[in-house]
Specification:
2 copies of one chain form a homodimer. Chain A is mainly alpha-helical and 215 residues long. Chain A has 2 domains: 48 residues, Arc Repressor Mutant, subunit A (Orthogonal Bundle); 139 residues, Tetracycline Repressor, domain 2 (Orthogonal Bundle), CATH 1.10.357.10. Chain A contains 10 helices and no strands. The radius of gyration of chain A is 19 Å and the shape is elongated. At the A-B interface, helix 8, helix 9 and helix 10 of A face helix 8, helix 9 and helix 10 of B. Chain A binds a DNA duplex (30 and 30 nucleotides) through helix 3.
Chain lengths: 215, 215
DNA sequence: ACCGGCGCTAAGCGCCCGCTCACCCTTGCC
DNA sequence: GGCAAGGGTGAGCGGGCGCTTAGCGCCGGT
């Protein structure tokens, strides 16, 4: 009713749901710092400083430094599940849905590289409980992609020998974008998304898509 | 002349070239600790403890904690270049050489996951000079794979629209194995290597390999 | 038998970490 | 205007960090 809830276009700004404004600024500062230097190398003083506050202010909104990472990780993973679920539920052939899933997932990793890096690579910095919770979300991510591939195999659109292994490889390819993508590099997130969608369609042996393969 | 220099089989034990025995034990302990907890979360006391020595002993063989990471990273990257160079220089079709490069590179990441994790994911923990040196080795890694793909395109064996982007994707796929591979999981490094070689041949549109694609 | 030197340790220095606490402004309600 | 409440601050705590230093035991050479 009040502020910043609209998801009109599709992405809007990602952290609209974090409600006290100071808490959001702190979270955003933490994302930047964690992405640049890693969780363990980031100090609470650094996070507070980036948010324009004193070190003590952090502990009004978050119990510990780890809670910051936990919150970031959960929100990020929920977004990832949402992206893949949306692609999986649209209408179209398995090939179209897989291409949609891969290109939007890659766009998210490339465009929001800062967030994605923290979400994908700082999992081990969480304690056992938080870690276990996040692993549940990762299983959902895997299940969405595997579902599309399985359906393509059943319908004969895909030719895949090892469905679980190929699913893993497809996700791995998308996730690793967060490691190497460079905002100042030669490619836009959209271009990488398209390239990767083509590559993945080839990986699953999709008929009649991507490259010229019609006799 | 004296000890442990033979590379007979191909891999032997990886750290044979680190000469004072205590220095090698420290390096091995550092690899384990960095892989488990990350560079910044690892203490020099932990490294020395794993090697069965006092904290001060570390500084007899290494100037700083960062020098340990630097040494590990350089040795690992040199091994990576060597693996790819060997595959690129063998005789055979581009498809055979690419499959060889991918499967052996993946085997290295999966089998030596501990080392590979440190080598591939702790680059940013190095200082600017060491980082720049390692980036040079990474450029060699990229060049080896790109060379094979370019040759396959020239000979008409491969069908690739974006050579640089595809090279990046192939390497990315292999490297990310170090993140997810689980020694207690269902796949051996050899199996993953074969699966990935097939997937990569499909990515480059190789004719007459891997899956049934003959009319 | 002596001894120089190397590999190693016990102790500890100075620093900065995550986090706490006592207190202070601002704001909104009566 | 009084005042409770909540967001914010300055100072600082206990502790663990990377790294140093003084000195000890062992070992090969003569």
């Amino acid at each position: 009713m009040s502020t910043a809830e609209e998801t009109a276009g599709g992405e809007a700004q990602p952290w609209g749901e974090v409600t006290p404004d100071a808490a959001r600024r702190l979270l955003l500062a933490a994302v930047e710092a964690f992405a640049e230097r890693g969780y363990h190398a980031t100090t609470t003083r650094d996070i507070a400083g980036r948010a324009g506050m004193s070190p003590a202010a952090l502990y009004i909104h978050y119990k510990t430094k780890e809670e910051l990472l936990h919150r970031i990780s959960r929100i990020g993973h929920e977004k990832a599940v949402e992206i893949l679920r949306t692609a999986a539920r649209t209408e179209g052939t398995p090939a179209e849905r897989l291409a949609d899933a891969v290109s939007s997932f890659v766009r998210w990793h490339a465009g929001g590289r800062t967030t994605a890096k923290v979400v994908q690579y700082e999992l081990d910095s969480l304690g056992p409980d938080a870690r276990a919770e996040i692993l549940g979300l990762r299983r959902q991510v895997d299940a969405e992609v595997r579902g599309i591939i399985e359906e393509g195999v059943r319908s004969g659109d895909f030719d895949v020998a090892d469905v679980r292994g190929t699913t893993l490889a497809v996700l791995s390819l998308c996730i690793d974008v967060a490691r190497w993508f460079n905002v100042d590099g030669p490619r836009t997130p959209e271009e990488v998304g398209e390239l990767y969608a083509d590559l993945v369609l080839r990986m699953v042996g999709a008929r009649g898509d991507g490259a010229v393969r019609r006799p």
